Amino acid sequence: MVSKLTAKPAYPFKHDDPISKTTISFRHVSYKKDVTLLHSWMHEKHVIPYWKLNISLEAYKLHLQNFLNDHHQTLLIGEINGVPVSYWESYWVEGDIMETCYQFEPFDQGIHLLIGNKDYLGKGFIYPLLLTILFHKFQVSQTNKVIAEPDIRNEKMIHVFKKCGFIPIKEVELPDKTGLLMFCERENFERRWADWQQNKF
Question: Is 164:127 a contact under the CB 8 Å cutoff?
Fold first, then answer.
């Protein structure tokens, strides 16, 4: 049987996006390099309602260290032309609280994300970022589904997920929110990826 340790997507990863005409890249979160930046992003007005991590720096340091030590997920910084723009939590559904919410397959993956850099908000950069990381996640040949569970109040993010190939499934009650469970199946994503590459998005 294929191990998730050998199958999981490798980072750093870089893609020259022909539509946004930018270089999209993802790298691992570095505790020393990124903790202050991430802490500042958690205090942005558009982030606070959904992440609820507008806590002290010392408390956030402990939170980040605990998350970095959780090997069922991978913490990433998404960059545009080398500029840190976004934070991502990429995880295996198996071993996550989400495994109790539906009949998962062993290589299902999930994702959480935020745009932290205010200079990149509302300018459409979320689409090449999300599509690119989905493309990379589906390079794991055993993965046929990527899930998301945005807060049901977060209409903008739900719209983004839908546009990138996610289908709403059901509401789920989670410890920190009521989420909307959404599935992105490989075949549906591949259509959306082709549309994007051909500027038919």
Answer: yes
